[in-house]
Amino acid sequence: MCVLIHMGNQKRTLHLNLFLSSLGHHEAAWRHPSSRVEDIIDFSRFQRLAQKAEQAKLDSLFLADRYATSRKAVKYGAISGLEPLTLLSALAVVTSRIGLIATVSTSFNEPFNLARRFASLDHLSKGRAGWNIITSGTDGEAQNFNYERIPEHHLRYERAAEFLDVTLKLWDSWETDALIQDKASGIYADNSKVHEFNHKGKHFAVRGPLNLPRSPQGRPLLVQAGSSEDGKDFAARYAEAIFTAQQSLADAQAFYADVKSRVARYGRSPEQVVILPGICPIIGESEAEAKEKEAQLHELTHPAYSLLQLSNRIGYDLSSYPLDGPLPELPATEQIAGHQSRAQLIRNLAERENLTLRQLLLRLAGGRGHRTIAGTAEQVADELEAWFTQGAADGFNIMPQLTNGGLEDFIDQVVPKLQQRGLFRTEYTGHTLREHYGLDVPANQFASAPQVH
Amino acid sequence: MCVLIHMGNQKRTLHLNLFLSSLGHHEAAWRHPSSRVEDIIDFSRFQRLAQKAEQAKLDSLFLADRYATSRKAVKYGAISGLEPLTLLSALAVVTSRIGLIATVSTSFNEPFNLARRFASLDHLSKGRAGWNIITSGTDGEAQNFNYERIPEHHLRYERAAEFLDVTLKLWDSWETDALIQDKASGIYADNSKVHEFNHKGKHFAVRGPLNLPRSPQGRPLLVQAGSSEDGKDFAARYAEAIFTAQQSLADAQAFYADVKSRVARYGRSPEQVVILPGICPIIGESEAEAKEKEAQLHELTHPAYSLLQLSNRIGYDLSSYPLDGPLPELPATEQIAGHQSRAQLIRNLAERENLTLRQLLLRLAGGRGHRTIAGTAEQVADELEAWFTQGAADGFNIMPQLTNGGLEDFIDQVVPKLQQRGLFRTEYTGHTLREHYGLDVPANQFASAPQVH
């Protein structure tokens, strides 16, 4: 029943990331009787979730991010909105092993600030920081940062690539052994190992060095989630972990093979990139009970809000279309300034299953395009094992529909089954996020001598 | 002996802010035998300091910031470099009452990001966030943010003023009672109380609202430290607490009177602005022992490093001048792009006391222009009382020369004397930073009805 792939002497095990949300990933989670909506922004709620995930030996916690909301959206949509790096810096203090992955956009930040804040979190957490790199995709966000429209897709990725180059230079600007700290001579650092690299490019001019010595991981783990052509190439070039939304095993296998081969084309080892599809588990004593739980959440959705969310996501206003008609013809993927790959996934889903707009909205209410598995703990574990062993995933980005109840169900019922099958760790063996994911510390581009980390 | 000024029925008491540094404010602190330089970036060190300050009922903790270092500077200068908001977010979790003031520059950030991060910290800490507003003043910093030179003084302040306007709009964009969270109807927020304000100015275009409901203090406490003409006007218009470097009682009194009258000219109440000069205490059993401690630290300085620091501070290269000659003629204050008021203070100090460059460097080694008081705990308490009761200060920004030893000396020996004299609280009476400083919550500019906070 349990198929294990062996890589050398190392048994391949899967990775689990908890995608944190305040009350749950389902858009109606806040209305569920179990949700304490009045505490939505309370830190103690996040602390409890983080500690629960760490007790279960999960690899990491992850926070997504957007840079806008609107008067329309807040009417029906629960907003917590704590800035990810701020919240993860606080969570670093109440956890000791679990990784901490924050989403920050390259379109609305400066490399020096971003490099420093992640290096600070990596120091604070003793090597547990990860950066989920996004380029952001909506006009609403752009309008909070001096633009009228979101810059075009390929321009955002062009800026992102230079942003990454500069950020990597900043993280490498202190070699590991640059600190001398010799009280007798008064020499603090060997400044032949501290680099003013003077980057001058199309988007950025940054002298360096960073004003913070090298952090425990050298550089934080780099995570990426774009699945468009630009996004996949970017991921293949830079990412060490990839979040992705995949609705079927076949699609997930195709994505997995595609990205791993792109990684190899950039001269990197495919094993050094971990692919983690999102999964929205809904667990019941029986499959019927799980489906019933899902239906109960679906009943709490507001179609007007769901439609607004979908319109924002694909960058196309759907508010004038009848809910019981089909998804209308959308602009070609390349015409979409925003999240191209998600728009494509949604179009494919509606077409393949011949969904009305109303049905589509419900399919997206739980995971915004990520796959929902409603079933028993055994069924969920079987599905994860199948994807893991059949070339579709190296692990999963877990998106509980409800925090109160749903998250506990996954951790208390599914994780032990994965452990019993030998698919998931029962103790942490590493201390850093990179160690949890089995990834090497990249070499320092400025180091002349071999590096010891 | 103890002169108390009464304001109505409220006895006026002073405020104490701890200016946090890793190993101490003296530039040679890291070389002192008591300093654990190998732990300079370790969070547990900051945690211990923060908790010690909170046990002593101090009003707040404060972190300064710069956005650059250089190969020259790191050779001799200890760098810790954790980004202030990151560190204070972590400290928020291990403290419960003390205020948390982070320095962030308006020249190298975007209002939306800054407003959100401070609101996040204010939520996390349940109303303890403060922002020390700086415009930054060195070319080295500008060169990490796409500039060749630091923008001119008045341009930085022009951007800062618009930055503040936008940031205040963002913090006010959610009225206090905008959240409905009604599960039955599915209405999350009363969006007539959430504002898309569409700011369009010279430097910024920001639509709003913030994607985070109003924080406990409404807006974080606004702190400012510029003492130039531009800086004082900016402070009078916006600041609720002001840090300042003053070398003599007379100068401090003049600054105090000047700023309070400017505050009144902007139609604000002078009592609603708290002025806090920096003080570097060095405490001994006797005055002679304190002076000996100071001399011991001075002996550990490197003149080359001190000179580099001074050159950076005043924006004028002094490396070719003889150490035993006088401070050379400097450009007129208005010609200085960087920190004008500090340059003026340093010039005045050298002139008034007829100091050689070498002597001047030692006078600046401890507090970079802030006043050092080396004496017994009784003498330090007397000096603080004198400034407080004679119209020079509403409290103090405490800058221990050494963290190990010096900070404890102040808290264990000076604070109890101030408490015995009825000059400082023995218990917190408030919960928010604004309550500690006795400052009102400002009205929301978008609220139509009277606000209840």
Automatic annotation (TrEMBL), chains A, B:
<feature type="domain" description="Luciferase-like">
    <location>
        <begin position="28"/>
        <end position="392"/>
    </location>
</feature>
<dbReference type="InterPro" id="IPR011251">
    <property type="entry name" value="Luciferase-like_dom"/>
</dbReference>
<keyword id="KW-0285">Flavoprotein</keyword>
<feature type="binding site">
    <location>
        <position position="153"/>
    </location>
    <ligand>
        <name>FMN</name>
    </ligand>
</feature>
<feature type="binding site">
    <location>
        <position position="103"/>
    </location>
    <ligand>
        <name>FMN</name>
    </ligand>
</feature>
<feature type="binding site">
    <location>
        <position position="228"/>
    </location>
    <ligand>
        <name>FMN</name>
    </ligand>
</feature>
<feature type="binding site">
    <location>
        <position position="227"/>
    </location>
    <ligand>
        <name>FMN</name>
    </ligand>
</feature>
<dbReference type="InterPro" id="IPR036661">
    <property type="entry name" value="Luciferase-like_sf"/>
</dbReference>
<keyword id="KW-0560">Oxidoreductase</keyword>
<dbReference type="GO" id="GO:0016705">
    <property type="term" value="F:oxidoreductase activity, acting on paired donors, with incorporation or reduction of molecular oxygen"/>
</dbReference>
<comment type="similarity">
    <text>Belongs to the NtaA/SnaA/DszA monooxygenase family.</text>
</comment>
<protein>
    <submittedName>
        <fullName>Monooxygenase</fullName>
    </submittedName>
</protein>
<dbReference type="InterPro" id="IPR016215">
    <property type="entry name" value="NTA_MOA"/>
</dbReference>
<dbReference type="InterPro" id="IPR051260">
    <property type="entry name" value="Diverse_substr_monoxygenases"/>
</dbReference>
<feature type="binding site">
    <location>
        <position position="65"/>
    </location>
    <ligand>
        <name>FMN</name>
    </ligand>
</feature>
<dbReference type="GO" id="GO:0004497">
    <property type="term" value="F:monooxygenase activity"/>
</dbReference>
<keyword id="KW-0503">Monooxygenase</keyword>
<dbReference type="Pfam" id="PF00296">
    <property type="entry name" value="Bac_luciferase"/>
</dbReference>
<feature type="binding site">
    <location>
        <position position="157"/>
    </location>
    <ligand>
        <name>FMN</name>
    </ligand>
</feature>
<keyword id="KW-0288">FMN</keyword>
